[in-house]
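Job type: complex structure
Entries:
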Amino acid sequence: MSYLETIRKYVIENFLFGDDSQLEEDTSFLESGIIDSTGILELIEFIEGTYHMRIDDEELIPENLDSIRNVVEFLERKLSKEITTEESARQS
Amino acid sequence: MVESYRSKEHIKICTHCILPETFPGITFNESGVCNHCQREASLKTGGTERKAEYRRELDKLIDNVKGSAPAYDAIIAYSGGKDSSYTLMLLRKLYGLRIVAFTFDNHFLSPLAKKNIETVTTALHVDHINFMPQWPLMQSIFATAARKEVFSKAALLRASSICTSCISMVKSLVLKTAVEMDIPLVAFGWSPGQAPIQASIMKTNASMVRENQKILKKIFFDHIGTATQSYFIPDAYYELYEDRFPHNIHPLAFFDYNEDKISQELEEIGWNAPTDTDSNSTNCLLNAFANQRHLEQYGYHPYVLEIANMVRQGVMSREKGIRKIYTAQDNEMVAYAREKLGRFA
């Protein structure tokens, strides 16, 4: 499942209880009230558990977490960076 | 199945935790286990090793900040209740931190909780700030929260509208005070079920705080007016004091948590469990009314998610969780708060 599908599914199941009528990729979770500030922490827990990664404190910003699109783009950046780092480590 | 707190009909609850069939979005598998328990099992988030990791991280953080700030190492949101008292005791006795305790007196602090606050802060040699807003403002806030759907459905999964209105102000004031006084740690006595372990040691991020505060201000200003403006972080602080945004810590997420043991240890420094509050609070006389309103409006207890989390984590027995959640609210306590809030509630 793609990052988009996974995150979208998680948000719909856990915060919208199956009703995705108000959820676009750019919908701000906080502003729309779909997810509150504690819910963002649960989202972080889900992301870290699903993708076996740690989100650093300085990455906990709305630009990385406050919409489906933001989360997906953050994952694409972070996880591709981690793959590149691992490959470089293996080659050296 | 348990007897419903609304009537004598039985309601179905998860066979593993205690979430009821009335909880939003809940589903059960063929064994009666809810989707929250199934998800937790698949993520494998908990564990002794993980808690030990967080404990080491706290030790390291405290080593880095202790003694470096001008006045205090930590400020704690202090209600006088069991969990915040225990957190205060841990940070003071185990780590020797310089702490200021901040109490938000919402006009419903139980007399026994006030006594506990004095006893504990004296026993631990901790400075104390008591912040009490004017009653007409608090009456307006609580009565509005009781009457209207002020907060999002996501927030209402975790706490009643009344509790959310109160804790929003507490969190904002404690953070604002930390920034103003340059205090590097903000501590909360969240129980293991109240917030995920990932949040138990977290650097507050100015832009995320700003976003949250923008939403809160809109809620408060739209419904109550701007009387609470000074409780929020001024816009100028985000740039002026960007380097002062503290770490939030809530150590009970990864310290051993046993309610009876905690109460015993607190009794050794003079704290006593209040007998004038409901079973889900050790400090607040508004809680029973807040719970009752939430039950009436939404059909589930506002503490059920927290208690279900604690049952799932093994820090509370399922039987105790059922007793805490599926016992009717004390009529006298509900009536007391309703009468005090007046005809608007």
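Summary: Chain A is about 65% helix and 0% strand. The first helix of chain A runs from residue 3 to 15.
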